[in-house]
Amino acid sequence: RPFKCVFDFAGCTSVFASKNEWKRHVTFQHLVLHYWVCQDGGCAEQSNSDAHLPRGKIHRTGLGASTLLTPSHTTPTSASGSTGLPNGSIFNRKDLYTQHLRRMHTPPNIKKSYKAAKEAGTTPANSASGGGGGGGIPEWEERIKKLQQRAEIERCKLPEYMTCPAANCDQEFTGTEAWDQRMEHVARHLDRAANNKSSEAEVVNFGGEDDSTLVEWASHPDVTVIQKRGGGGVTGEWELNNPLEKRGGTHTGNSTHAQHMRAGEHQGEMVIMHNTHLPKEKMTEKIKTRLLW
DNA sequence: GAGCGTCTACCGGTTCGAAG
DNA sequence: CTTCGAACCGGTAGACGCTC
Question: Where do the record's region annotations for Disordered lie (predicted)?
Fold first, then answer.
């Protein structure tokens, strides 16, 4: 398993055998560039500014599946107080949001159709349970697609300047593809390191002295993927931060990111973060500043 | 408190379409 | 044709509420 999580320096111990899984893990579990908000029926009542609510709690009471097609379901605009997160059920992956839609908000008549089809062994049943997809009732599938688009919110953007974390590698990456290029590049280092353990040139030290661009970006107030342990303290001591964790969260105990989010700016269109992809000049300037500390 | 049902989080495999 | 990435799909684990 050559692919260790790029945030291992912040405490993530995940390792992966395939590049695909490695990239997916980093993207969905740590970066959270996008998320999906369900504000239908009972979900709309969930405030994400309050102290942490136990998982699943808000889904208990009278979910109005039949209200899905009502005008109350509009673009997420009702950002809650202190976190910047909108009210509603939040999902970090599109397929999870879709799964939730199918399970919780399928109108009763559609559910009935699926059930009948399942018993008859016909097509719509294939997508009636779980994530579902493909065949089904066309109007409902169309509706789901629209809801998926509407619910999607961009949290932050990828960096536009990065360097390679491998020792003795001066490779730089710029532009909107910088992150992907770096991941691909680093994957080759990791691969080679796994196959040739004696090669020091392939040693990748995420978050180390050769990886300041990652640390700078990930800890930026508009990104907050990692944060200083204990909210300050020792340089180099980082811990993971889940950007979608509600303020006051308890089960990870690291949810101070909310302080950085600017809920007051969310009026009209829901925009959580702005310009988090720092240009090269700005990033290097920040790095210089950091080194002077 | 045990057992059960519901729901979300996460993982890993599969499918499918686009690009080379 | 092959490779790759995005999305889909199915399964499992854990948390929680409800009932007995």
Answer: 66-91, 114-139
- Within a domain: A136: yes
Buried b (16+ CB within 10 A) or exposed e, A22-47: bbebbbbbbbbbbbbbbbbbbbbebb
Closest residue to C17 measured CA to C1′ = A60
User: In this structure, is residue A166 part of a structural domain?
Assistant: yes
Q: What is the CA radius of gyration of chain A?
A: 22
In a domain, residue A27? The reply is: no
CB A123 within 8 A of CB A133: no
Question: In 3D, which of A47, A1, A42 has the Cα closest to residue A25?
Answer: A1
Domain with A84 in it: 34-154
Q: Do residue A125 and residue A167 come from a single domain?
A: no
CA–C1' A46–C4 (A): 39
Are A141 and A165 within one domain? Answer: no
Does at least one atom of strand C sit less than 7 Å from the CB of A95?
Answer: yes
Q: Encode pLDDT of A101-160 as tens digits.
A: 766 676 666 666 665 655 555 444 333 333 333 345 666 666 776 777 677 777 777 788
A98 touches strand C (CB under 7 A): yes
Last residue of a domain, one of A120, A154, A188: A154
CA of A195 to C1' of C3 (A): 22
- A133 Cβ within 7 A of any nucleic strand C atom: yes
Give a yes or no: residue A182 inside a domain.
Answer: yes
When mean pLDDT is compared across A31-45, A139-153, A191-205, the lowest value belongs to: A191-205
Q: Which nucleotides of B are covered by protein (CB under 7 A)?
A: 6-14
